[in-house]
Amino acid sequence: MNLFLQRFIIFLGAAILQRSGFDIIWPNFQAPAIMIALVVSLVFILGFEQGLAWSLLAVLIYSLLGRGDLFVVYAVVVAYGTSFLSRRLVIERTLESGLVLAITSVLFTLLFYGVLFGVAQETLPTFMMMILNALQTLLVFPIVFILLQLWERRVRNSFMSQFRGLRT
Amino acid sequence: MALTVYGLVFLLPDRVGTVFRGILAPIATPFQGIASWSAFEVRTASSFFASIGNLKRENERLERERLGLFQQEARLRELEHENELLREALKLPNRVGSEKLSAEVISRNVNGIAMDITVNRGTTDRVRVGLPVVVGDGVIIGRVSAVHLTSSEIRLLSHAESTIAARIAGTAIQGVVRGNHGLGLVFDMALSDEVLQPGAPVVTSGLGDALPKELSIGEIREVRPSFDRLFQQAVVAVPVVMGDIRFVSILLTPEP
User: Fold this and answer.
1) How far is CA B196 from CA B167, B178, B243, in A?
2) A17, A56, A120 ranked by CB distance to B35: nearest
């Protein structure tokens, strides 16, 4: 299957899980935990340029499934922030890097509330709700990160095996 | 390249967004249905376990309410019968009931406190923009704001841009009910010399827009003067928890 189509299906799945799963179970959480974790993971795994491009596709799908125009803009900030941080992280030290990125996702979740309040002038939920939302991102991030990394490795291996099959 | 596409979609959300939304919605709706069903089941199960401790108290409260409603129902039946007789005597036409189309919530928007929901009915089910959406026997919760092939977006009354004409049931007090930034509803524009009683039921007045009249909205709570002191405002308590809504009915009112 085409790489674009594969990624489109994954992003559509993530957006549906966020909109029709998480947002129904926890209707008071306003920061989309899965999408934040997805953008951070994509930028870290694929690098800034590719990561940003694919992140934009993911958040556009998310936005098209409902209304979330503010998050589309915010995703660019998340991508830039992650890229800035990931240049300072050693990729080989996966555990430490993963931990720093998980904390970054939590901070981006809390910052989103600041954006909602400051830019969109939305009414914020209670402080406890924001903390629980941040905790949700902390729990969701490793799952999204590991699944995405495994899938990217599989894609890379399939490309490599295609090259190995070529005769020069 | 990605930024250009992104800019194009973001800068022209109404034109481009609607086209893409129209394409994506029919593909996503079945999967959203499955995901939302699972999510609602999880939510129901977790709230059941959380509420075990409150069951006894809740049961007593419901029993009291049941007895109250039993008496109220008997009285209403009597009034309904009387109303029919009077209508017949005065040769008034009967009220036209709207056809109800049941729908299930398949997603919720996070921008704001659950102010928009998506349901699994669309143009194929004769849904149009502006149709009222109710729960239970006729408690209005919002209106259809966008329609796709197999799904529709509902803007809840609590949305900051929602406004409907309303009145206090059983009186001539007219006003408008508008959303209070996702937090609840406000009954506004009531004249300052009118008496707004806490607990009085608020219903749609049917004036100004294509909504049927006498759909229940909620009841009056705190009354206060408006900012310019020309009118009165009141907080409206709604009988449903917006976050718990799973099934709704769309009233297929005739086109104006």
Assistant:
1) 11, 17, 28
2) A17
User: Which residue among B32, B108, B118 places its CB closest to the CB of A27?
Assistant: B108
DSSP annotation string for B20-80: HHHHHHHHHHHHHHHHHHHHHHHHHHHHHHHTGGGHHHHHHHHHHHHHHHHHHHHHHHHHH
| Residue A118 DSSP code | H
Per the structure block, which two tokens stand in for B153? 């977006």
Rounded to whole angstroms, the Cα distance separating A5 from B221 reads 53
- When CB atoms are compared, the residue of B21, B31, B111 closest to A16 is B31
Identity of the amino acid at B86: L
Distance of CA B106 to the CA centre of its chain: 16
Q: Is B107 helix (H, G, I), strand (E, B) or coil?
A: strand
The Cα of B165 is separated from the nearest Cα of chain A by a number of Å equal to 24
Are B113 and A67 an interchain contact pair (Cβ–Cβ within 8 Å)? Answer: no
Helix (H) or strand (E) holding B235: strand B231-237
Of A71, A13, A128, the closest CA to residue B110 belongs to A71
Q: What is d(CA A32, CA B114) in angstroms, rounded to the nearest whole number?
A: 13
Q: Which residue has the tokens 């914020």?
A: A124
Interface A:B, Cβ pairs < 8 A:
119
> What are the CA-CA distances from residue B60 to residues A76, A111, B201 (Å)?
53, 44, 24
**pLDDT, tens digit (0-9, with 9 covering 90-100), for B107-123:** 887 655 557 889 999 99
Task: Tell me the H-state helices in chain B.
Answer: 2-11, 18-50, 55-90
Question: How is residue A158 written in tokens?
Answer: 């399939």
User: How far apart (Å, rounded) are the C-alpha atoms in residues A159 and A1?
Assistant: 12
Nearest to A111 by CA among A155, A142, A81: A81
Q: Suggest the residue from B110, B161, B185 to mutate for an interface test with chain A (most A CBs closer than 10 A).
A: B110
Cα end-to-end distance, chain B, whole Å: 46
Question: In this predicted model, what pLDDT tens digit does every residue of B152-204 receive, in sequence order?
Answer: 999 988 888 888 999 988 888 889 998 886 678 899 888 888 888 888 889 99
Which residue do the tokens 């409603």 mark?
A: B69
